[in-house]
Write a structure and sequence with these properties.
Number of helices: 9
CATH topology of the largest domain: hpI Integrase, Chain A
Number of strands: 4
Number of domains: 2
Distance between the termini: 64 Å
Largest sheet: 2 strands, antiparallel
Protein name: Integrase
Keywords: DNA integration, DNA recombination
Mean pLDDT: 87
Pfam families: Phage_integrase
InterPro entries: DNA_brk_join_enz, Integrase-like_cat_sf, Integrase_catalytic, Tyrosine_recombinase_XerCD
Order of helices and strands: HHHHEEHEEHHHH
Radius of gyration: 21 Å
Strand content: 5-15%
């Protein structure tokens, strides 16, 4: 809202209709963060959601892409083994980036079936390309219908994908190569909880390796 308002007011300033732009450089408000889906919540969606929506959940969970990039994916962006994504960056001055994503076997098997529908876009609703807002509204309705926590949305699936990569032992650079994050700071923010689990498991494994099951050294 601030970006749009600043643009409108700036347009007025350029035409000498306003003395200054009061929305220029307004600080961001602390609005919190998106809720990451859990593995069980993703599986519930894949089992219960209507077909067009479960496809969106699966594609988001296994690629870590934003909603806007997901609905733009066409079949000619998929080679059978990897997806090509031209990520649109909305921040002022940020350039779009190209990302190549190897496809997980589970997603690849489903995509082979989806392609038989003969659609232009990988995600479609009754033969028509999704509009982002409509997709989000439909996901929210399904979340409510099947008793999942309020607040789960498409961006939460992006956080889920990053967390799963972190739990698999991927570095921040490796995760960013999939999700397309321009800074490692955001990747680390997304994966903080997942990394804690990995480190905790590694710590306990080391404790067991060195002291055994009964608190006695194995040396």
């Amino acid at each position: 809202m601030i970006v749009v308002l600043s643009s409108i007011l700036g347009w007025g300033v350029d035409r000498d209709w306003l003395p200054f732009n009061v929305a220029y450089r307004v600080k961001k408000l602390p609005i919190g963060s998106y809720i990451a889906w859990s593995e069980s919540q993703v599986e519930t969606a894949l089992t219960c959601f209507s077909e067009p929506l479960r496809r969106a959940v699966l594609l988001a969970a296994y690629t870590g892409q934003r909603r806007g990039d997901l609905i733009k994916m066409r079949w000619d962006h998929w080679s059978g083994r990897q997806l090509y994504v031209n990520q649109e960056k909305k921040r002022a001055g940020a350039k779009d980036i190209e990302v190549y994503i190897p496809i997980h076997p589970r997603l690849a098997a489903e995509m082979l079936e989806w392609k038989k529908d003969g659609c232009d876009y990988i995600l479609e609703n009754c033969g028509e390309k999704w509009v982002g807002v409509n997709l989000s509204k439909r996901i929210a309705l399904q979340v409510r219908k099947f008793g999942l926590p309020a607040g789960l949305n498409m961006h939460g699936l992006r956080k889920y994908a990053a967390a799963m990569l972190a739990e698999a032992g991927c570095t921040s650079h490796q995760i960013a190569s999939i999700t397309g994050h321009s800074t490692l700071e955001m990747v680390e923010h997304y994966t903080k909880s997942a990394r804690q689990k990995v480190l905790a498991r590694e710590a306990m494994d080391k404790l067991q390796d060195n002291f055994g099951n009964h608190g006695k050294t194995t040396n």
